[in-house]
């Protein structure tokens, strides 16, 4: 890195390239607005607190989910497993009915993928705009988890199977 700094465009490119090499779990974030289902794939999801149980989701303000999520009182974070790759790939098709693949049920006013590794239904308690995104903070209303699932993971523009990755000792070697 140079002391002179990087141009804004170079900094954005370097950031994008660095983030491509951070493995991330894939989530289908969903909601219902005026009776219609909306959803996107996301990797910018994080637990926030255990008291109260809550998480945050970052959504680009140009995303199809943004405005419905802005109006909705509830949303669901569906943690996709390896067995949900078909759902993830279908969510990427422009103008497709995103809920045509997979088994979806409405719980607490949100679409929940029945085969997801985990599903976390939240009540929106705060919204914060930063840059190109809105950070939605949700307080947990309901959760389910399957013990037998491996998360669908995204790395360097590809889905990867982390269950097949070599195991390390955890000692930092």
UniProtKB/TrEMBL annotation:
Keyword set for this entry? Oxidoreductase
In the UniProt record, does the keyword Oxidoreductase occur? yes
Which SUPFAM superfamilies does the record associate with it?
FMN-binding split barrel
Q: Where is the Flavin reductase like domain?
A: 19-161
Keyword Oxidoreductase in the entry? The reply is: yes
InterPro entries (alphabetical)? Flavin_Rdtase-like_dom, NADH-dep_flavin_reductase, Split_barrel_FMN-bd
- PANTHER family from the xrefs? FLAVIN REDUCTASE, FMN REDUCTASE (NADH) RUTF
The molecule here is called Flavin reductase like domain-containing protein
Organism from which the protein derives = Erythrobacter westpacificensis
Instruction: Provide the taxonomic classification.
Output: Bacteria, Pseudomonadati, Pseudomonadota, Alphaproteobacteria, Sphingomonadales
């Amino acid at each position: 890195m140079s002391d002179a700094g990087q141009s804004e465009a170079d900094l954005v490119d370097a950031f994008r390239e660095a983030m491509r090499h951070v493995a991330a779990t894939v989530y289908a974030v969903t909601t219902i607005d005026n009776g219609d289902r909306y959803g996107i794939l996301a990797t910018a999801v994080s637990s926030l607190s255990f008291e109260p149980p809550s998480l945050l989701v970052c959504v680009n303000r140009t995303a199809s989910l943004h405005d419905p999520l802005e109006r909705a009182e509830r949303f669901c974070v569906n943690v996709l497993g390896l067995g949900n790759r078909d759902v993830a790939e279908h969510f990427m098709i422009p103008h497709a009915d995103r809920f045509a693949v997979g088994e979806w049920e409405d719980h607490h006013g949100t679409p929940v993928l029945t085969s997801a590794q985990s599903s976390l239904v939240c009540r929106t308690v705060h919204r914060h705009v930063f840059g190109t995104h809105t950070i939605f903070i949700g307080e947990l209303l309901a959760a389910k988890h399957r013990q037998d699932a491996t998360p669908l993971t995204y790395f360097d523009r590809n889905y990867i199977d982390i269950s097949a990755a070599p195991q390390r000792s955890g000692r930092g070697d």
